[in-house]
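Methods — Computational structure assignment.
A single polypeptide chain was analysed. Its primary sequence is given first, followed by the predicted tertiary structure written as structure tokens.
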Amino acid sequence: MDFNYQGKVAVITGSSKGIGRETAEQMVKLGAKVLLVARGEDALKKAAEEISAHGDVAYIVQDITEKNAAEKIVERAVEKFGRLDVLVNNAGSSFAKSFEDIDIPDWEDDIDLKVMSAVKMSKAALPYLKENGGAILNLTAVMGKTPQANSLPTTVSRSAGLALTKAMSKDLGKYNIRVNAVCIGLIRSNQIEKRWKNQAPDLSWEEYSEKSAGNIPLGRIGDTAEAANVITFLCSDLASYVSGTAVNIDGGSGHAW
């Protein structure tokens, strides 16, 4: 199968660690040139150095919530690589409380990071994506489809991300720009690994994963590579007729399609 990443350029936010980093490495291995974006320089530089063993990669240290950050990121990608074909809006955080426990500034910060940053990045990338067609991928969460108690404001931001994805796909299809989303469930992360080492250091990762699976039908926590596999596919030419959809990466635990 030909993913046709050769000569393509991708920007991936939140790509110093986790799913963003793994996605960047997969795309580079398939021939893409990737600009990594994150706030922490040490982790970002390390990721770029490691991924560069497989191909062409650059990075920019940038908080995407800052003024004009999106324009700076896109300009850096185009200056370095000459074009832009793929945008992965991955930057985010996990912040969840009950409605009465959340202050208004927390709402504003969460929406700014998870919704408005995707809007600003997509707007900045649009002139370049229109040149050759391309793909925008928004990372959201399974709970965005079925919000639970004590899940605010993150589930509201993630639900907005789903609506944004669908609406953008309708507007940008005429430029051959595909817009999709993935809804992340329980996936291995630095936070989960710390919990594992603190709570059950005597267990192997596989044992801890199975023990912590809870209501996940596949019976384990997902791996970052499994999430990156889906993202890499959706942004590739193999998914050339897929747009406006949101794919669950959750081991079957979600309660919505």
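Note: The longest strand covers residues 134-141.
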